[in-house]
Amino acid sequence: MRFLRQFCYILAISFVAELLRMTIPAPVPASVYGMAILFTALKAGAIQLDEIETPGAILLAFMPLALVPAAVGLVDAWDEIKRVAFPGLILILGGTLATTVVASASAQFVIRRDKEREK
Predict the structure, then answer these.
(1) pTM reported for the whole predicted model
(2) CB neighbour class for 17 (10 Å; exposed up to 12, middle 13-18, buried from 19)
């Protein structure tokens, strides 16, 4: 009975999140609203962590099963994907490299500027 009550907390938060998604005209998924509600309830003390920890762990254990349809969809669409896979990979790697270089150069600039100010 305790587990059912704990699971109902998660379902109630998910339901409220879906209601918010339908009523608020913003492109925010219900899961984001749900996480915000859950975080607020935990921080406010309305829900204790041990009240949702067990069903949360079970749901987390079954999460990979929810990703199987997406993976199967990628395999089914491989003929369309393989045309853009190599250019996409090049763009991803190039963007990652550019981001890394700019971030490290910016960090070095800030560190050097702070050291000069200390002198």
Answers:
(1) 0.57
(2) buried
User: Residue 81: what are its φ and ψ, rounded to 5°?
Assistant: -75, -35
Q: Across residues 65-94, what is the average pLDDT? A: 87
Q: Which two tokens stand for residue 67?
A: 């990703």
Q: SS3 string of 50-73? A: HHCHHHHHHHHHHHHHHHHHHHHH
Closest CA to 34 of 64, 66, 55, 11: 11
* Alpha carbon distance 48, 50 (integer Å): 6
Burial of 36 (0-12, 13-18, 19+ CB in 10 A): middle
